[in-house]
Amino acid sequence: MYKPVTIKDIAVALNLSVSTVSRALRDTYDISRKTKDLVSEYAKKVNYKSNPIAVSLKNGRSYSIGIVVPELANSFFSQAIAGIESIAYERGYNTIITQTHDSAEKELANVSHLTQRSVDGLLISVSSETKDYSLLKRLNEQGLPMVLFDRIIDEIPTFKVTSDNYTGAFNATELLIRSGRKRIAMLANAPQLSITNERMSGYLKALTDHGIAFKPELVKNFGKGNNSDRNISAAIQELMAMKDKPDAIFISSDRISISCIRALRKLNISTDEMMVVGFSNSDVVDLLSPSISYVRQKSFEMGEVAMEMLLKLIESKYPVTEFETRILDTELHQKTS
């Protein structure tokens, strides 16, 4: 029967006290570098692993981080989670990942479950359906370390990290305008989301700067319940049936971008006829046909930044009262043909 190596086993083998071995493994200041190296090399040789339950009981932590995202299948969120985990595991934390499918009810259930699991902190990107933030506000007031990323909200004073959605949308819309397009439709997420409002503002500013009147009938929003391929296809057909139909589409969501391309393909509409620029972090976006230009977010970096921010809250010896909202640049990729 397999028996894991303990600190006591290492102490006996190296003729050291259990206390010395424990402090050497924790890299405390009062142990010499020679002893630390000796213990570290032997521990690695015998495949010693610390007991996470014992460590958590001693430190009053679970060393677990709760992550709440709208959709794991979304390339942006899967890349952000990879960034989170790259920092978490390096610092000795495990992650518990949940998805809401953009449901406020599932978000509430997931957050409640994670707090019952005694996570040390929470990283969350709110669902498109959520309008009541009372639970998150209460948990924040009770002292649960919490960082908001991508889809952020003003109601909670804490660290936040998101993309420069305004500039990304402005650049995308201006690209369409400089290509000679005048009637530019916008397909977007739920209107209450921070990212939707910021991207809408960038879209409107580009129109205004180039003297193009805003046409509200050219804007279509998709939240939970109406963001299926079928609904997006119906919206495209509705736009194409207009007397003055659009000659370009700006898409402010990765998920909607893919569905829009499918709809255009079914209608045999080329990107010469209907130029498209969308927010997308999909690894296959360059292979899409018709091809599109796209705005790419620094999703992996966003995950890293969010996790570093959360660790500041978790590991600070004093209450943190000043918070930062980090805005990460986006990159506009123009199609080559």
From TrEMBL:
CDD domains: HTH_LacI, PBP1_LacI_sugar_binding-like
SMART domains linked: HTH_LACI
Keyword Transcription regulation: yes
PROSITE patterns to which the protein is assigned, alphabetical: HTH_LACI_2, SIGMA54_1
Domain (HTH lacI-type): residue spans on this chain: 5-59
Identification of the protein by name: LacI family transcriptional regulator
Lineage, highest ranks first: Bacteria, Pseudomonadati, Bacteroidota, Sphingobacteriia, Sphingobacteriales
Pfam families to which the protein is assigned, alphabetical: LacI (PF00356), Peripla_BP_1 (PF00532)
GO molecular function: DNA-binding transcription activator activity; sigma factor activity; transcription cis-regulatory region binding
The entry's keywords: DNA-binding, Transcription, Transcription regulation
Signal peptide range: none
The organism of origin for this protein: Pedobacter frigoris
